[in-house]
Amino acid sequence: MDDITPVLIVAIVFAFVSFSVYLKYRTERFRHGVDDLESNLQRENQQLRAKTEGLEKRIEVLESIVTTRDFQLKQEIESLP
After folding, report:
1. Contact predicate 27/19, CB 8 Å
2. Which secondary-structure segment (H or E) carries 16?
3. What's the CA gap between 57 and 51, in Å, rounded?
4. CA separation (Å) from 76 to 69, 70, 72?
5. Distance (Å, rounded) from C-alpha 13 to C-alpha 21?
C-alpha cells in the first residue's frame, strides 16, 4: 500500500488541476459568449447556403433562356442593319 500512495496523490493532484483548468476554460467561453456566437454563425451559414442555392437555380434558368434558339434568333434579327 505504501508504494501506491505517492502515485494516488499525484493522480489526484493531476485530476484536480485538469478539472480546474477545464472549468476556467468553460467559464471564459461562457463569459465571452462563444457558444452564442457559434450558434449565430451556424444559423447565418445555413441562411447563406440557402440563398446560394436559390441564386444557383436562378442562374440555371437564365442560362437556359439565353441558350434557347428563339433568343438567339431574336438577337440575330436585331443585329441586322
Report:
1. no
2. helix 5-32
3. 10
4. 11, 10, 6
5. 12
Q: 61 vs 24, 36, 75, CA distance in Å?
A: 54, 38, 18
The number of CA neighbours under 13 Å toward the Cβ of 65 is: 6
pTM of this structure: 0.47
pLDDT in tens, 5-49: 888 999 999 999 999 999 998 888 777 777 677 888 889 999 999
Query: ∠ CA(31), CA(34), CA(36), 5° rounding?
Result: 105
pLDDT, tens digit, for every residue of 41-76? 889 999 999 999 999 999 998 888 877 777 677 777
Asked if 56 contacts 62 with a C-beta cutoff of 8 angstroms, the reply is no
Quick check: helix, strand or coil at residue 74?
A: helix
Q: How many residues does the chain have?
A: 81
